[in-house]
């Protein structure tokens, strides 16, 4: 077949294939949302929230809003690194949407698929999206290393005997996490401008000021997340211990690959804190946390996703 024939054939089937892929993507998202909604005990969520004082809910909700607002600026750091031209509001909107879906549907769908989908629709190249996504993920887990390292080193919790790690082991783990964070900061301080190639992608260390900004933003965000649960527990457990348990649960959720960490978050908190707080009150606070930090942002993000899709379609129509 001639080159012209191959071109004509591709032109005839490609629009249909792309349309099927797009609708398949929307269908997958709809199925995941329905599946997620069916796993939630909505009556229990409402009862748990209703049993909490209004002042507690307002304080926890304010901290959750601050956490989402802060996380939504992570991709602005990636914009600074890649020099792409999307506006601040657009970038924060995409990051918010991706984060909310990431929490509820897992990182592959939320953190990755939604960013690629929305950013590509808004005109960014895949290489740029990859760099923005990678820098955002690095920022998030860099703060985790510092906050978890400090919590495990200086406020080690009493672990169940069958966990095969004691307080001393937790302190050693915390020190290792802090050393990893320090190594990254040292790399940024002494290897600025150096470039590495990994699987065809180029990575370069940012300067020390950027590394310190990453640390400050991410540490504050993890601290805010712990504050949400601490408020919902109404001070029944010391804040450093609540934060440490949340950090353990965060890694457990990633390792198990369970969307939204369903059951994992609750299991870790019950295992580590049920000797201090009645299990019913503990689960009630965690269900309220899911309502404030997972489900409510998911509703907002779904609406934001639809608006962003319509805006991207108008932009593409205007350029065609």
Descriptive keywords:
320 residues, mainly alpha, two-stranded antiparallel ribbon, 12 helices, 79% helix, globular
Please identify the oligomeric state: single chain
Structural class: mainly alpha
What is the beta-strand fraction? Answer: under 5%
Please describe the biggest sheet, giving its number of strands, its sense, and whether it closes into a barrel: 2 strands, antiparallel
In round numbers, the mean pLDDT is 81
Strand order of the largest sheet: 1-2
Q: Which geometry do the CA atoms define? A: globular
Runs with pLDDT <50, length 5+?
A: none
Name the helicity range. over 70%
Query: Given the structure, what is the number of helices?
Result: 12
Number of strands: 2
Count of discrete structural domains: 1
The whole-angstrom Rg is: 22 Å
Order of helices and strands: HHHHHHHHEEHHHH
Note the gap between the termini: 31 Å
């Amino acid at each position: 077949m001639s080159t012209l024939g191959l071109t004509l054939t591709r032109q005839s089937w490609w629009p249909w294939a792309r349309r099927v892929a797009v609708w398949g993507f929307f269908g997958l998202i709809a199925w995941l949302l329905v599946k997620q909604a069916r796993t939630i005990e909505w009556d229990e969520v409402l009862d748990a929230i209703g049993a909490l004082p209004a002042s507690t809910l307002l304080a926890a909700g304010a901290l959750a809003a601050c956490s989402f607002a802060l996380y939504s600026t992570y991709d602005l750091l990636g914009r600074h690194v890649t020099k792409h031209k999307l506006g601040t509001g657009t970038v924060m909107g995409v990051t918010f949407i991706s984060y909310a879906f990431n929490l509820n549907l897992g990182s592959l769908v939320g953190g990755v698929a939604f960013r690629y989908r929305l950013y590509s629709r808004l005109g960014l190249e895949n290489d740029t999206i990859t760099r923005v996504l990678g820098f955002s993920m690095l920022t998030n887990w860099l703060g985790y290393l510092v906050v978890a390292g400090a919590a495990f080193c200086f406020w080690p919790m009493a672990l169940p005997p069958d966990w095969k790690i004691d307080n001393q082991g937790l302190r050693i783990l915390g020190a290792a996490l802090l050393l990893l964070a320090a190594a990254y900061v040292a790399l940024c301080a002494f290897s600025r401008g150096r470039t590495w190639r990994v699987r065809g992608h180029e990575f370069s260390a940012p300067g020390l000021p950027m590394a310190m900004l990453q640390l400050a933003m991410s540490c504050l965000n993890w601290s805010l997340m712990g504050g949400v649960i601490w408020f919902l527990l109404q001070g029944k457990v010391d804040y450093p211990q609540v934060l440490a348990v949340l950090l353990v649960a965060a890694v457990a959720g990633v390792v198990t690959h369970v969307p939204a960490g369903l059951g994992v978050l609750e299991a870790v908190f019950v295992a580590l804190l049920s000797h201090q707080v009645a299990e019913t009150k503990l689960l009630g606070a965690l269900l309220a946390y899911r309502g404030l930090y997972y489900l409510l942002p998911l509703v907002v993000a779904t609406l934001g996703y639809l608006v962003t899709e319509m805006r991207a379609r108008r932009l593409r129509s205007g350029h065609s």
